[in-house]
């Protein structure tokens, strides 16, 4: 039964991943953008300001709103945390609530380790991804997954209006990288 559920989930994920071919608008953005501008576009998409769309962490780390994600030429730096020692346990009718200490560490997400970039446009997928935080679900958006492995990936949310510019920035960041977009 477990295998059937996992298979169903994998098929669901594959069917929701969309192919991507850059159009002329993306190529025009890329032509007019340099590396520092690409970094600025990604910074705004990931964590730039109150207008940033949101970011999804991976299973390997959590982050606070004060994590101060910083995009740079080689990757993304942030103050992440993981579970530390147990601070308290509160029995409930079903199970118990366990409160853990946060153990902070500097996390470096390295662009050179990215194996794939997956693009999802299905809003029903958002709750499936861990640590997703989107401020406005009324606008059309894409989830762009910079995937290293199951414990090291960053998924960020880009409104449809900003998608072409963000993809152009990713093309500059990953210039010369040998993987292909889905």
Structure described in brief:
26% of the residues lie in helices and 36% in strands. By secondary structure, it is an alpha+beta fold.
Topology:
Layout lengths: L1 H15 L7 H8 L3 H13 L6 E3 L5 E2 L6 E3 L2 E17 L4 E15 L5 E5 L11 E3 L6 E9 L2 E8 L3 H11 L9
Helix pairs in contact: 2-4, 3-4
Q: How would you describe this protein?
A:
With 182 residues, this protein is of the alpha+beta class. 26% of the residues lie in helices and 36% in strands. The chain has helices at 2-16, 24-31, 35-47, 163-173, and strands at 54-56, 62-63, 70-72, 75-91, 96-110, 116-120, 132-134, 141-149, 152-159. It has a five-stranded antiparallel sheet. Strand 4 and strand 5 form a beta hairpin. The radius of gyration is 18 Å and the shape is elongated. Mean pLDDT is 75; it is low at 1-18.
List keywords for this structure.
4 helices, elongated, alpha+beta, 5-stranded antiparallel β-sheet, 182 residues, 4-stranded antiparallel β-sheet
